[in-house]
Amino acid sequence: MSNGYEESGLHYRSDDPRSQKQDDVPNPELRDRLKAKKKPPVPEKAPLNEMSTVRKVIGVVSGKGGVGKSFTSSMLAVAMQKAGYRCAILDADVTGPSIPKAFGLKEKAMGDDYGILPSVTSTGIQVMSLNLILENETDPVVWRGPVISGTVKQFWSEVVWSDVDYMFVDMPPGTGDVALTVFQDLPIDGIVIVTSPQELVSMIVEKAVNMAGLMKVPILGLVENMSYIECPDCGKRIEVFGKSHVDEIAEKYMIPVLARVPISQEIATLSDEGKIEQFDAKYFEEAVKVLK
Hints:
Blueprint: H1 28-38, E1 54-61, H2 69-82, E2 87-91, H3 99-103, E3 110-112, E4 115-117, E5 119-120, E6 126-128, H4 145-157, E7 164-170, H5 177-185, E8 190-195, H6 199-214, E9 219-224, E10 229-230, E11 237-238, H7 246-253, E12 257-260, H8 265-272, H9 285-291
Parallel strand pairs: 1-7, 1-8, 2-6, 2-7, 8-9, 9-12
Antiparallel strand pairs: 3-4, 5-6, 10-11
Helix pairs in contact: 4-5
Protein backbone atom coordinates (compact mmCIF):
# COMPACT_ATOMS: atom_id res chain seq x y z
CA MET A 1 0.00 0.00 0.00
CA SER A 2 1.40 3.42 -0.98
CA ASN A 3 2.27 5.83 1.86
CA GLY A 4 2.82 8.91 -0.35
CA TYR A 5 6.54 8.38 -0.93
CA GLU A 6 8.39 6.78 -3.80
CA GLU A 7 10.23 3.58 -2.96
CA SER A 8 13.54 5.07 -4.06
CA GLY A 9 13.57 7.80 -1.38
CA LEU A 10 11.66 10.34 0.66
CA HIS A 11 10.02 12.15 -2.28
CA TYR A 12 6.41 13.22 -2.65
CA ARG A 13 4.44 11.65 -5.50
CA SER A 14 4.07 13.78 -8.59
CA ASP A 15 0.36 14.13 -7.99
CA ASP A 16 0.87 15.31 -4.41
CA PRO A 17 0.46 19.14 -4.18
CA ARG A 18 3.42 19.24 -1.80
CA SER A 19 5.69 18.27 -4.71
CA GLN A 20 5.17 21.67 -6.36
CA LYS A 21 8.14 23.98 -6.79
CA GLN A 22 8.22 27.11 -4.64
CA ASP A 23 7.45 29.36 -7.64
CA ASP A 24 4.35 27.26 -8.44
CA VAL A 25 2.83 27.65 -4.97
CA PRO A 26 -0.48 29.49 -5.57
CA ASN A 27 -0.54 31.26 -2.19
CA PRO A 28 1.74 34.33 -2.57
CA GLU A 29 2.23 34.69 1.19
CA LEU A 30 3.26 31.05 1.55
CA ARG A 31 5.56 31.38 -1.47
CA ASP A 32 7.31 34.40 0.04
CA ARG A 33 7.75 32.59 3.36
CA LEU A 34 9.30 29.60 1.61
CA LYS A 35 11.73 31.80 -0.27
CA ALA A 36 12.66 33.71 2.88
CA LYS A 37 13.31 30.43 4.68
CA LYS A 38 15.49 29.21 1.84
CA LYS A 39 17.64 32.38 1.80
CA PRO A 40 18.07 33.80 5.31
CA PRO A 41 19.01 37.48 5.42
CA VAL A 42 22.68 38.32 5.88
CA PRO A 43 23.17 40.21 9.20
CA GLU A 44 24.37 43.79 8.79
CA LYS A 45 27.69 44.91 10.22
CA ALA A 46 27.83 47.56 12.94
CA PRO A 47 28.31 50.99 11.37
CA LEU A 48 31.68 52.72 11.61
CA ASN A 49 31.76 56.26 12.98
CA GLU A 50 31.28 58.69 10.09
CA MET A 51 34.56 60.40 11.01
CA SER A 52 36.55 57.14 11.10
CA THR A 53 38.65 55.38 8.48
CA VAL A 54 39.71 51.77 9.11
CA ARG A 55 41.06 49.78 6.18
CA LYS A 56 41.77 46.35 7.67
CA VAL A 57 40.48 44.70 10.85
CA ILE A 58 42.33 41.71 12.31
CA GLY A 59 41.10 39.76 15.34
CA VAL A 60 43.61 38.27 17.77
CA VAL A 61 42.13 35.22 19.45
CA SER A 62 43.02 32.27 21.62
CA GLY A 63 41.18 29.19 22.78
CA LYS A 64 42.10 29.86 26.42
CA GLY A 65 43.61 32.53 28.64
CA GLY A 66 47.21 32.95 29.72
CA VAL A 67 48.92 32.43 26.38
CA GLY A 68 49.96 36.04 25.75
CA LYS A 69 47.16 37.20 23.48
CA SER A 70 47.28 40.85 24.61
CA PHE A 71 51.05 40.86 24.20
CA THR A 72 50.63 39.50 20.68
CA SER A 73 48.02 42.16 19.84
CA SER A 74 50.41 44.82 21.14
CA MET A 75 53.43 43.52 19.25
CA LEU A 76 51.55 43.07 15.97
CA ALA A 77 50.51 46.72 16.19
CA VAL A 78 54.05 47.78 17.15
CA ALA A 79 55.62 45.76 14.32
CA MET A 80 53.21 47.05 11.68
CA GLN A 81 53.59 50.63 12.97
CA LYS A 82 57.38 50.32 12.63
CA ALA A 83 56.85 49.02 9.09
CA GLY A 84 55.21 52.33 8.20
CA TYR A 85 51.51 51.61 8.72
CA ARG A 86 49.06 53.49 10.94
CA CYS A 87 47.78 51.04 13.54
CA ALA A 88 45.13 50.84 16.25
CA ILE A 89 44.10 48.41 18.96
CA LEU A 90 40.48 47.86 19.97
CA ASP A 91 40.63 46.16 23.36
CA ALA A 92 37.63 43.82 23.27
CA ASP A 93 38.80 41.97 26.41
CA VAL A 94 36.41 44.14 28.41
CA THR A 95 36.61 42.30 31.74
CA GLY A 96 40.39 41.98 31.65
CA PRO A 97 41.78 44.98 29.78
CA SER A 98 45.58 45.08 29.90
CA ILE A 99 46.52 46.94 26.71
CA PRO A 100 46.73 50.45 28.31
CA LYS A 101 49.10 49.14 30.99
CA ALA A 102 51.49 47.64 28.43
CA PHE A 103 51.69 50.97 26.56
CA GLY A 104 51.86 53.16 29.67
CA LEU A 105 48.56 54.91 28.88
CA LYS A 106 47.17 56.60 31.99
CA GLU A 107 45.15 59.58 30.75
CA LYS A 108 41.45 58.87 30.30
CA ALA A 109 39.85 58.85 26.86
CA MET A 110 38.20 62.11 25.89
CA GLY A 111 35.38 62.93 23.51
CA ASP A 112 33.98 65.66 21.29
CA ASP A 113 30.88 66.26 19.21
CA TYR A 114 31.89 63.50 16.80
CA GLY A 115 32.51 60.72 19.31
CA ILE A 116 35.05 59.20 21.70
CA LEU A 117 38.69 59.96 20.97
CA PRO A 118 41.11 57.04 21.43
CA SER A 119 44.29 57.40 23.45
CA VAL A 120 47.50 57.52 21.42
CA THR A 121 50.78 55.80 22.37
CA SER A 122 54.25 57.32 22.11
CA THR A 123 54.70 55.90 18.57
CA GLY A 124 51.22 56.90 17.37
CA ILE A 125 49.19 53.71 17.90
CA GLN A 126 45.53 54.50 18.66
CA VAL A 127 44.03 52.54 21.58
CA MET A 128 40.53 52.18 22.97
CA SER A 129 40.00 50.14 26.13
CA LEU A 130 37.54 50.10 29.00
CA ASN A 131 40.37 50.96 31.39
CA LEU A 132 40.62 54.31 29.60
CA ILE A 133 37.06 55.07 30.67
CA LEU A 134 36.84 53.60 34.19
CA GLU A 135 37.47 55.97 37.06
CA ASN A 136 39.99 53.53 38.55
CA GLU A 137 41.80 50.93 36.46
CA THR A 138 41.36 48.38 39.26
CA ASP A 139 37.56 48.70 39.31
CA PRO A 140 36.00 45.31 38.51
CA VAL A 141 33.73 44.99 35.48
CA VAL A 142 30.80 42.88 36.66
CA TRP A 143 28.68 42.89 33.52
CA ARG A 144 26.59 40.31 31.73
CA GLY A 145 27.40 39.14 28.22
CA PRO A 146 25.01 41.41 26.26
CA VAL A 147 26.38 44.53 27.97
CA ILE A 148 29.97 43.50 27.24
CA SER A 149 29.12 42.76 23.60
CA GLY A 150 27.37 46.14 23.33
CA THR A 151 30.49 47.87 24.66
CA VAL A 152 32.64 46.24 21.98
CA LYS A 153 30.25 47.49 19.28
CA GLN A 154 30.37 50.99 20.81
CA PHE A 155 34.17 50.93 20.65
CA TRP A 156 33.81 50.30 16.92
CA SER A 157 30.94 52.66 16.13
CA GLU A 158 31.35 55.56 18.56
CA VAL A 159 35.13 55.97 18.66
CA VAL A 160 36.75 58.25 16.08
CA TRP A 161 39.47 56.09 14.52
CA SER A 162 41.71 58.40 12.51
CA ASP A 163 43.08 57.03 9.22
CA VAL A 164 43.88 53.50 10.43
CA ASP A 165 45.58 51.02 8.09
CA TYR A 166 45.46 48.05 10.48
CA MET A 167 43.22 47.64 13.50
CA PHE A 168 43.96 44.74 15.83
CA VAL A 169 41.06 43.57 17.98
CA ASP A 170 42.33 42.02 21.23
CA MET A 171 39.59 39.52 22.02
CA PRO A 172 38.93 37.70 25.30
CA PRO A 173 39.87 34.02 25.45
CA GLY A 174 37.44 31.37 24.30
CA THR A 175 34.64 31.28 21.76
CA GLY A 176 31.84 33.04 23.66
CA ASP A 177 29.68 36.14 23.29
CA VAL A 178 32.39 38.67 22.44
CA ALA A 179 34.00 36.45 19.80
CA LEU A 180 30.60 35.97 18.20
CA THR A 181 29.91 39.73 18.33
CA VAL A 182 33.25 40.57 16.71
CA PHE A 183 32.85 37.96 13.97
CA GLN A 184 29.28 38.97 13.17
CA ASP A 185 29.24 42.74 13.71
CA LEU A 186 32.73 43.91 12.75
CA PRO A 187 34.13 43.63 9.19
CA ILE A 188 36.87 41.19 10.17
CA ASP A 189 39.42 40.58 7.40
CA GLY A 190 40.98 37.66 9.25
CA ILE A 191 42.22 36.41 12.60
CA VAL A 192 45.53 35.52 14.20
CA ILE A 193 45.39 32.63 16.67
CA VAL A 194 47.73 32.67 19.67
CA THR A 195 48.93 29.49 21.32
CA SER A 196 51.68 28.06 23.53
CA PRO A 197 53.54 24.75 23.27
CA GLN A 198 51.44 22.63 25.65
CA GLU A 199 49.44 19.85 23.99
CA LEU A 200 46.29 20.86 25.92
CA VAL A 201 46.50 24.38 24.53
CA SER A 202 46.99 23.00 21.03
CA MET A 203 43.76 21.05 21.37
CA ILE A 204 41.91 24.19 22.44
CA VAL A 205 43.44 26.13 19.55
CA GLU A 206 41.73 23.71 17.18
CA LYS A 207 38.41 24.86 18.69
CA ALA A 208 39.26 28.42 17.65
CA VAL A 209 40.23 27.18 14.19
CA ASN A 210 36.92 25.35 13.87
CA MET A 211 34.93 28.37 15.07
CA ALA A 212 36.62 30.53 12.45
CA GLY A 213 35.63 28.01 9.82
CA LEU A 214 32.06 28.00 11.11
CA MET A 215 31.90 31.81 10.93
CA LYS A 216 33.70 31.84 7.56
CA VAL A 217 36.49 34.08 8.87
CA PRO A 218 39.94 33.61 7.27
CA ILE A 219 42.79 32.50 9.54
CA LEU A 220 45.88 34.55 8.74
CA GLY A 221 48.30 32.58 10.88
CA LEU A 222 49.43 31.22 14.25
CA VAL A 223 51.65 32.84 16.87
CA GLU A 224 53.29 30.62 19.48
CA ASN A 225 54.19 32.41 22.71
CA MET A 226 56.53 31.02 25.38
CA SER A 227 57.92 28.81 22.66
CA TYR A 228 61.28 28.32 24.38
CA ILE A 229 63.80 29.98 26.67
CA GLU A 230 67.31 30.83 25.60
CA CYS A 231 70.18 29.95 27.92
CA PRO A 232 71.97 33.25 28.70
CA ASP A 233 75.34 31.47 28.82
CA CYS A 234 75.41 29.16 25.80
CA GLY A 235 72.39 30.31 23.77
CA LYS A 236 70.83 26.84 23.74
CA ARG A 237 67.07 26.77 23.29
CA ILE A 238 65.24 24.96 26.09
CA GLU A 239 61.62 23.89 25.52
CA VAL A 240 60.29 24.58 29.00
CA PHE A 241 56.71 23.54 28.23
CA GLY A 242 57.65 20.53 26.16
CA LYS A 243 57.77 19.94 22.44
CA SER A 244 55.89 22.45 20.31
CA HIS A 245 52.81 21.27 18.40
CA VAL A 246 52.30 24.45 16.40
CA ASP A 247 53.80 23.01 13.21
CA GLU A 248 51.42 20.03 13.37
CA ILE A 249 48.39 22.33 13.63
CA ALA A 250 49.76 24.61 10.90
CA GLU A 251 50.25 21.67 8.55
CA LYS A 252 46.86 20.12 9.37
CA TYR A 253 44.94 23.31 8.59
CA MET A 254 47.42 24.78 6.06
CA ILE A 255 47.98 27.90 8.18
CA PRO A 256 51.31 29.78 8.29
CA VAL A 257 53.23 30.20 11.55
CA LEU A 258 53.73 33.95 11.96
CA ALA A 259 55.99 34.00 15.01
CA ARG A 260 57.63 31.92 17.71
CA VAL A 261 58.25 34.13 20.72
CA PRO A 262 60.54 33.00 23.57
CA ILE A 263 60.01 33.43 27.29
CA SER A 264 61.78 36.69 28.06
CA GLN A 265 62.33 38.70 31.22
CA GLU A 266 62.58 41.77 28.99
CA ILE A 267 58.99 41.29 27.76
CA ALA A 268 57.67 41.12 31.31
CA THR A 269 59.70 44.14 32.43
CA LEU A 270 58.73 46.35 29.50
CA SER A 271 55.05 45.39 29.83
CA ASP A 272 55.06 46.21 33.55
CA GLU A 273 56.78 49.54 32.90
CA GLY A 274 54.43 50.48 30.04
CA LYS A 275 57.23 50.44 27.49
CA ILE A 276 56.22 47.52 25.26
CA GLU A 277 56.96 49.61 22.16
CA GLN A 278 60.66 49.39 23.03
CA PHE A 279 60.70 45.60 22.64
CA ASP A 280 62.48 44.36 19.53
CA ALA A 281 59.85 43.36 16.96
CA LYS A 282 62.24 40.95 15.19
CA TYR A 283 60.14 37.95 16.22
CA PHE A 284 57.22 39.36 14.22
CA GLU A 285 59.03 40.01 10.95
CA GLU A 286 57.28 37.08 9.27
CA ALA A 287 53.94 38.32 10.55
CA VAL A 288 54.53 41.73 8.93
CA LYS A 289 55.28 40.04 5.59
CA VAL A 290 52.08 37.97 5.73
CA LEU A 291 49.79 40.76 6.92
CA LYS A 292 50.96 43.37 4.37
